[in-house]
Amino acid sequence: MSLQYISDDSGNHTAVIIPINEWNEITAKHEDLKQLQDKPKSTLKKKPSEYAGTLDKELAKKMILDIEKERGEWERRF
Fold first, then answer.
1. C-alpha dihedral over 46, 52, 55, 61, to 10 degrees?
2. Are residues 6 and 13 in contact, defined by beta-carbon separation less than 8 angstroms?
3. Any idea what the Cα angle at residue 35 is, between residues 31 and 41, rounded to 5°?
4. Helix 20-29 × helix 31-38 angle, to 10°
5. How confident is the model at residue 75 (pLDDT cuts 50, 70, 90)?
6. In whole angstroms, what is the distance from residue 19 CA to residue 2 CA?
7. SS3 state of residue 66
8. Three-state secondary structure call for residue 63
9. Does the N-terminal or the C-terminal CB of the chain have fewer CB atoms within 10 Å?
């Protein structure tokens, strides 16, 4: 497979270019990849409102108390 890599200024790979013929072969073998390709980008991103209610209220209260406690400890150290 003849891949091309795109790198950032630091030399880290940030993307890969796959020749279209090879991509078509891969998606023919793996239908789940084809489904990703067919979805509009807007449906791949979730809105913050879609996460509403996913955290138990009791757990949220405990997390807030823990955060407040940690903030207090951090402020005392300085």
1. 130
2. yes
3. 155
4. 120
5. low
6. 7
7. helix
8. helix
9. C
Q: Check if the beta carbon of residue 68 is closer than 8 Å to that of residue 60.
A: no
pTM for this prediction: 0.39
Look at the alpha carbons of 68, 70, 73, 78 in this order and tell me if their dihedral is positive or negative: negative
Q: Which two tokens stand for residue 47?
A: 């809105």
For the segment 1-55, what is each residue's pLDDT rounded down to a tens digit?
788 999 999 999 999 999 999 988 888 888 787 777 666 665 567 777 777 777 7
d(CA 19, CA 35): 19
CA-based nearest residue to 16, from 26, 28, 2: 2
What does the pLDDT read at residue 27? 84
Q: Got the DSSP string for 18-60? A: --HHHHHHHHHH-HHHHHHHHS-HHHHSPPGGGGTT-S-HHHH
